[in-house]
Amino acid sequence: MTRATRPGDAAAPVDGQTLALAAGLGVVFVWGANFAVQKALFEVLPPGAFLFARYLILPACAAGLLLYVTRGRWLRLPRADAWRLAGLGVLAHTIHVSMVTYGIHWSTAFSSALILACGPVFTLLILHWAGLERLTRGQVAGVALACVGVLVFLSDKLVGRQWAATGGDLMMLFAASLFSYYTVMTKPLIQRHGGVAVMAYATLAGSPGLVLLGLPAALSAPWAEMQAVHWGLLLWASVISAFGGWLVWGWVNERRGVGRTAPLQYLMPLVAGLVAWWATGERYTGVKIIGAGITLAGVALAQFATRDRRDPVREAPAQVD
Description:
Blueprint: H1 11-41, H2 47-69, H3 79-106, H4 109-116, H5 119-129, H6 137-159, H7 163-193, H8 195-220, H9 228-256, H10 258-261, H11 268-280, H12 286-304
Helix pairs in contact: 1-4, 1-9, 1-11, 2-8, 2-9, 3-7, 3-8, 4-7, 4-11, 5-7, 5-12, 6-12, 7-8
């Protein structure tokens, strides 16, 4: 006779995994839709004013989370680590996020999502350059395939001499490399102090520059013309996507493991493209779809054609703004 299954026995792990998968898919949808959300918001609010408002909100959220985790006591880091995080925070937020924001403004939602999905390729190249990762033949092929895919994807803009849109995509590509560098350099800090502390310190360090840079645009922005839907889009981009999304993604990684969760990020450009098509009327040629498919295939090959399943390249996170 078999033992009767009690609540919390065999069913609990399955339910927990199902919940984590559903949460991961939900985050991918939020992140993918965020590109179209920002494009829609930029029709009313200039990118500089958006950054000003966003980085008044995000530091408060990050500091509040850290105080909650530490039960009201601010976590003090060693001076060397604090200064290192300050520099990385300026790189990741002041420079990287501003470049991504203006890149989205000048380009399209689908292009922006696809370019940022190339982040794991840059992570691999940075680790190889630092002597921490040896490239396999599959990874070399993946990097080459991703480069070909990006060229095919951008070919219509290059042939049509759409320099503003192409410049936005190239800016996004450089921003993706900066985020990969930030990812590699913060990993030992996360191992020592935890992800919440690293996120809080980096956000607080990178916020003042963005607030100051965005102040002129914020002073002349048409705040009075913003309707409830626009304020909702601003909260979506600032709190739900940028802050809440990373919290949930971290929980999903913890429950499912990085190796099983990372492939979900390749759905993000697809979500971004579908949402932009439905919400803003963005249209795609066959060349663009083929280029996107080649790019994502190359990125996936570069990320997962490793010798070790616990390779740090496999842990390269999805990148969103």
